[in-house]
Amino acid sequence: MLVFLGILGLFAVSLADPTPDPWGVYGEVCMANTPGVYDPADSQTVPWYTVNLDEDPKTRWALVARSRAQGILDTLETVHQFIGEHGLLGEMGELLWQILLNSMDDAVFHLPEPYRSEILGFADAANIPVSKLVLLNLFYEISKGCTSIVAEDPNGKIYHARNQDFGTFFIWNTTLETWQQTIALKNILINVNYIRGGKTVYKGVTFAGHMGVLTGMKPHAFTISTNSRAGKSWDNLAAWFAGQANERIELIWADRQVLEVANSFDEAIDYLSTVPLFASGYFIVGGRKSGEGAIITRGPNGTDHIERIDTSKPDGWYVLETNYDWDKVEFYLDSRIGPGNDCMKRLTRANVGLEGLYQVLSSKPNLNKATVYTSVMQVDDLAFQSFIRDCPNPCWFV
């Protein structure tokens, strides 16, 4: 019941509002070109950790594990509350929760390396059951939303930014008026500097306990963010749980893998267009040169569409993706593409930069109650900033 109380309140206000905008106070608000919205110092609240890729996978995450263990358990408890005996399904839900955890105990041995060893080592250092940590790594396949933008300034310089929305429908906190899982995820958000031979190989944003990357940058090469896409994935996951060998990987691991193996924008596009996946998704990639910005619309077995920056076209100086296909109409209760495009046009190409894209992603409803963080990146300036976000009322729930 807690899940729906806040939503009902939002509907009541929006439907009662007499203004021409049918969403009333929950309507579109663009912050483009608004002074004071972007403050780089705010990014310092997201902690940085170093992961040494030369170290044994079972120990390389030990510091993160020990310092973030309770936050991970709190995050997982939001799933338990949603599914378990105090959730929507009552006692049947508690049985489902236990079955789910038991399946994770078996699933860990089907994971590819180095993720299997990393999860086993992390669980040991954090004193968290392995089953719960495996479940955490599957989160992105089941509950997520986002906005990603790659834009080119008048000089051909490429910038990349994203909002990560996560936690919708996982327990509405009536006191704080937001999603309980979204709150929990903010407490385990981390930046990671991945090093090898004492030098940075790539940087990433992730949730402690996630062995993949959701937003990342390979210096002087490319940037990446991943958005979820609706589509059937349970057959692939079921086969994996059953121990059937396959070469599929999760979206968050594909991001980390491409940061490992690709050394340019074109190499990243090639890898992400062909890697076998468990679930559908959108890979948004930025590069170094004019025109190097793309949205790859992926199914589990291949690429359905690629949209690229094309400055010869009107408004072709950027690409923007939420969670809908290039040829589909977005769900009316989740309208973020239109507002995002409207705000980018108001920003104009002349104002593209870290500050400008942060302003757009501070605009409602692309900033909403499920938004965990905003990241802004520039690959040659080595700019990589992450900001924990809160959407002030009135703010849309998803």
Automatic annotation (TrEMBL):
Keyword Disulfide bond: yes
Name assigned to this protein: Acid ceramidase
Active-site residue list: C146
GO CC annotation: extracellular region; lysosome; membrane
Name of the top EC class for this enzyme: hydrolase
One Pfam family named in its UniProt record: CBAH
Source organism (scientific name): Mesorhabditis spiculigera
UniProt keyword annotations, A-Z: Disulfide bond, Glycoprotein, Hydrolase, Lipid metabolism, Lysosome, Secreted, Signal, Sphingolipid metabolism, Zymogen
Domain named Choloylglycine hydrolase/NAAA C-terminal: residues: 146-315
Segments forming domain Acid ceramidase N-terminal: 44-99
Membership in a protein family: Belongs to the acid ceramidase family.
Position of the signal peptide: 1-16
One Gene Ontology MF term: N-acylsphingosine amidohydrolase activity
EC number: 3.5.1.23
GO biological process, any: fatty acid metabolic process
Location of this chain's protein in the cell: Lysosome; Secreted
Pathway(s) the chain acts in: Sphingolipid metabolism; Lipid metabolism; sphingolipid metabolism
